[in-house]
Amino acid sequence: MDLLVGSARAEQLWREVYPALTVGRPGLHGALLARGPAHVVRLSELFALLALSNSIKAAHLESALAWWDYNVKSVERIFSDRTGNADADRIKAELLPGEKLDLQEIRERLFSNHITSGRLHDALDLLKRGGDVRVSVERTPGRPRTVVERLGPPGRR
Predict the structure, then answer these.
(1) Which residues contact 89 (CB under 8 A, 6 or more apart)?
(2) All CATH 1.10.10.10 domain ranges in the chain, comma separated
(3) What are the helix (H) ranges across 22-57?
(4) Contact 11/17 with Cβ under 8 angstroms?
């Protein structure tokens, strides 16, 4: 993405920061922080207009980048524990670290039997990929039992 700039310093700064602005982020963070370059361009234009400048200078771009950095940090802090999947977030919120429930208990206790098998498995797959739960199969005298264990924070596993 090109930026209409009024100085060589602004152009060089844009080239330096552009790769970081386009870095892909997974899940909810990725959705909320998508289109970083476009937002920074708009903010830079706004700062240039406020300064009554007819082009974007390095100071305008730096101000826009400071706002964008604040936005990124806010999203990371506010949504740090969210996956973007309501079912996965509910399981994550309801199970304490170390707690184990089988699939039937999760359906009954957490969802009052109002969740499809597909949605439950999608939520558990997302939580497994994120390292939030461990899913194991236990043998019983009858059918095998699938057990979900909530894992603690990364430093406490």
Answers:
(1) 81, 82, 83
(2) 86-156
(3) 27-32, 36-50
(4) no
Tokens of 129: 């990929």
Q: Tell me, what DSSP letter sits at residue 6? A: S
Q: What fold, for 86-156?
A: Arc Repressor Mutant, subunit A (1.10.10)
Report which secondary-structure segment, H or E, holds 102: strand 100-102
**Rounded CA separation 94/85 (Å):** 14
Q: What is the pTM of this model?
A: 0.63
> Is 47 within 8 Å of 63 (Cβ atoms)?
yes
Nearest to 102 by CA among 55, 142, 43: 142
pLDDT values of the chain reduced to their tens digit, one per residue, 157 residues: 555 667 889 999 999 999 999 988 877 888 889 999 999 999 999 999 999 998 999 999 999 999 999 999 999 888 877 888 999 999 998 999 999 999 999 999 999 999 999 999 999 999 998 889 999 999 989 999 999 999 987 644 4
